Amino acid sequence: MYLYMKLRSLLKSVSALALAVFASAQLHAQTEPQKPARPVQPQNVEARQQTGEDEMTRELNLTEEQKAAFKKANDEYRAKSKGIKADQREEMQKLRAERSKAHKAALTAEQAKKYDEIMAKREARKAEQAGKQGNKNNGKPAKKQGGKGRNGQ
């Protein structure tokens, strides 16, 4: 009888402890801040750029000539930065092609054929996703998110 009561008391204690741990985990999960689900829309970027230009004009008390010089510098910067992004994209495409060539060199003819099929499916899926994101981003391609995918790539 004594052993039975001890076991029953121990079971109640373990149950209470498990319930407390579970409840605290649930509360913690609910209090973490949520990140916004959608990316920054281009119109928001343009509005933010205009706000920055307006702030500079106001804070520095720029003349019309100075405003024009600032606008010209900003436009040139944007054009050059887009060019850099295009160059980086081309460089990454070259690197991917080199990697693919190295992968295929290590494969048998049958494996290389299967590899090409897998890569074609991935590209199709990627294009489909970009198309879906492009519609949400006013026709612009989706920005790639950081981090690694399922296969560590």
Write up this protein:
The chain is mainly alpha-helical and 153 residues long. The protein has four helices and no strands. It has helices at residues 2-31, 42-60, 64-105, 109-136.
Low-pLDDT residue intervals, each spanning 5 or more residues: 145-153
The helix/strand class is: mainly alpha
Computed CA radius of gyration, to the nearest angstrom: 28 Å
Q: If you average the pLDDT, what whole number results? A: 77
Helices and strands, in order, run as: HHHH
Oligomer state of the chains in this structure: single chain
Largest sheet features: none
Distance between the termini: 62 Å
Counted beta strands: 0
- Helicity level, as a percent range? over 70%
Percent of residues in beta strands?
under 5%
Counting DSSP H or I runs of 4 or more residues, the number of helices is 4
| Shape assignment | flat
Furnish the topology, listing elements before pairings:
Elements: H1 2-31, H2 42-60, H3 64-105, H4 109-136
